[in-house]
Amino acid sequence: MDVRNSAVIFTVFGCCISSTPSWGHHPIDASYDSSKPVQLRGMAAKIVFAAPHSYLWLDVRETSGEIAHWVVELDDKEKVGAAGLTRRAAAPGMIMTVTTYGAKARANLVEAIPTAPPEVHEAAEAGRLVHGTELQLPDGRTIVVGAK
């Protein structure tokens, strides 16, 4: 292999490696309707800190009395951590209010977030995946958890 071929191979390989995190990301406005914010109040069931998105599972009591299991898409773990969201702040059992954006009509969230855990895809298919912007904790603090 000559020097020219090696340079091309390393350049292509480098581009592939550096772009990998963006494969799992999608533009918020393409998938969610930011013109209609919705507030969800419920009990934290689980939180996963990850990249490109973190996720909060929230159990919300509906008007019928049934518990609906929602998944709230958040910014990546570095952003939400820097904003003050920790495992202790969003511990399971805590009651919190999240300002969210619902999916746009005909948005295919499963396709938009192929790297998300299977439970997130299940919530998307059930119409219970939302994008969170602000999270109000039981102590009254409000944390920005996603793009507006």
Could you characterize the architecture of this molecule?
By secondary structure, the chain is an alpha+beta fold. The chain has a single domain, classed as OB fold (Dihydrolipoamide Acetyltransferase, E2P). It has five helices and six strands, in the order H-H-E-E-E-H-E-H-H-E-E. Strands 1-2-3-5-4 form a five-stranded mixed barrel. The chain is globular. It starts with a helix and ends with a strand.
Summarize the structure.
The protein has helices at residues 3-19, 28-31, 77-83, 109-112, 118-125; strands at 32-48, 54-61, 67-74, 95-103, 129-136, 142-144. With 148 residues, the chain is α+β, with helices and mostly antiparallel strands.
What is the element string, with H for helices and E for strands?
A: HHEEEHEHHEE
Rounded average pLDDT: 83
Kindly state the percentage of residues in helix: 25-40%
Given helix and strand content, the structural type is: alpha+beta
Q: Sheet with the most strands? A: 5 strands, mixed, barrel
Output the CATH class name: Mainly Beta
Radius of gyration based on Cα positions: 18 Å
For the record, give the distance between the C-alpha atoms at the N and C termini, rounded to a whole number.
50 Å
* Contiguous helical run count: 5
- Full CATH superfamily name: Nucleic acid-binding proteins
Low-pLDDT stretches: 10-24
**What is the count of structural domains?**
1
The CATH architecture can be given as Beta Barrel
Multimeric state of these chains? Answer: single chain
Task: Give the tally of β-strands.
Answer: 6
Spatial arrangement of strands, main beta sheet: 1-2-3-5-4
